[in-house]
Amino acid sequence: MTKNIMIVGVGGQGSLLASKLLGHLLLSEGYDVKVSEVHGMSQRGGSVVTYVRFGEKVCSPIIDKGEADVIVSFEKLEAARYVEYLKEGGRIVVNTQEIDPMPVITGAAAYPERLIEKMKDMGIAVDAMDCLSLAESAGSAKAVNIVLMGRLSNYFDIPVEKWQSAIAACVPERFVELNHKAFLAGRGDA
Q1: At the top level of CATH, which class does the domain 3-187 belong to?
Q2: Residue 80 near residue 94 (C-beta atoms within 8 A)
Q3: Cβ atoms within 10 A of the Cβ of 6, count?
Q4: Where are the beta strands (DSSP E) in 41-136?
């Protein structure tokens, strides 16, 4: 059975590294894996979406509306934007950070209020945490992506050591220790 994970965020937050790490981990576990950056702008500020599909045999890298088992979101508004992709009984793992999109920056719109509560009111399982603070505590605000991967790891039956090996394989050596700390903080083990 194929599992579907959407990683959504804003350009410059490290969502591509998160999807690379997840893909590396799942391949090492023997799954057929398809990773696809679907759309978005990789420069800072644009919406970025990456699909990670894995299972015994995965034919397409695309996740349609109502198919995502998990949505990992780097920011609350991005989680709300893609909620229709979540399948019945799916879960959203979300950083509680707010990054103003252009309409808010220009004053044309206000940042929506109570997004986490609204998603929970829809009956969605939402795991929300302040990943930015945890990343800063680990040593760098840029480690939000790895904090989120740590949080996501709680929903997988894959040993922590294997996640740590995937981190070591995907990040420059000088950042491995910091990312291990960020990962454990996300898991709640720090």
Answers
A1: alpha beta
A2: no
A3: 26
A4: 47-55, 68-73, 86-95, 125-129
The 3-state DSSP class for residue 136 equals: helix
Between CA 64 and CA 51 the distance in angstroms is 10
Cα gap 36→48, rounded to integer Å = 11
* Rounded Cα gap, residues 148 and 138, in angstroms: 13
CA terminus-to-terminus distance, the chain: 33
**What type of residue is 2?**
T
User: pTM of the full predicted structure?
Assistant: 0.93
Crossing angle for the helix pair 160-170 and 15-28, nearest 10 degrees? Answer: 120
pLDDT tens for 125-182 read 999 999 999 999 999 999 999 999 999 999 999 999 999 999 999 999 999 999 999 9
Q: List Cβ neighbours of 104 (8 Å cut-off, separation of 6 or more).
A: 110, 111
Distances (CA, A) of 13 to 48, 52, 95, 121, 189: 9, 17, 11, 28, 23
- Look-up of token digits 């919406």: 47
Q: How far apart are CA 52 and CA 34, in angstroms?
A: 6
| Distance from C-alpha of 64 to C-alpha of 161, rounded to nearest angstrom | 32
